[in-house]
Write a structure and sequence with these properties.
By secondary structure, the chain is of the alpha/beta class. The protein is built from 3 helices and 5 strands, in the order αβββαβαβ. Helices cover about 30% and strands about 15% of the residues. A hairpin with a 2-residue loop joins β2 and β3.
């Protein structure tokens, strides 16, 4: 047997997979980065005095207590059926000259279905501008 020494193979580092991974990371970061849309336009906003407006905004207030009872502008609705709430809200809206914004104030222990029913009825009546009232908790320092 004749064992001849093999010529040593040239060892070189293949950079192709490394470049592929770097490009993939670059594409990933480019796609997932969020940009500040307001940074493009630089404007100086006008200033105003801190005087409160004397005009009071007319709003429709719907309160839902913990038992699921509805109150429209402080008056209790006869029962908590959706049809009754619909008629009561329609009657109050017919008395108004404009469509006011609706403020829904629900008790923290109120039934979730009661709140969803109120929102659904508001949508059926064409009230598109409504908000949910919450109480602000005080933070401990």
């Amino acid at each position: 047997m004749n064992f001849r020494p093999r010529p040593p193979e040239d060892l070189d580092v293949n950079l192709t997979p490394l470049i592929d991974v770097v490009f993939l990371l670059l594409i990933f970061f480019m796609v997932t980065t969020t940009f500040d849309k307001n940074a493009e336009i630089k404007i100086d906003l006008p200033t105003a005095d801190n005087t409160a407006s004397s005009q009071k905004v007319e709003k429709l207030e719907l309160v839902i207590d913990s038992q699921g009872r509805y109150y429209i502008d402080g008056r209790e609705v006869l029962n908590n059926k959706p049809e009754t709430l619909f008629q009561a809200m329609k009657t109050v809206l017919d008395e108004r000259t404009t469509v006011p914004p609706l403020v829904i104030s629900a008790d923290a222990n109120a039934n979730y279905q009661s709140v969803i029913t109120a929102m659904d009825i508001a949508g059926r009546l064409g009230l598109k501008n409504f908000s949910m009232a919450t109480a602000q908790t005080q933070r401990k320092k």
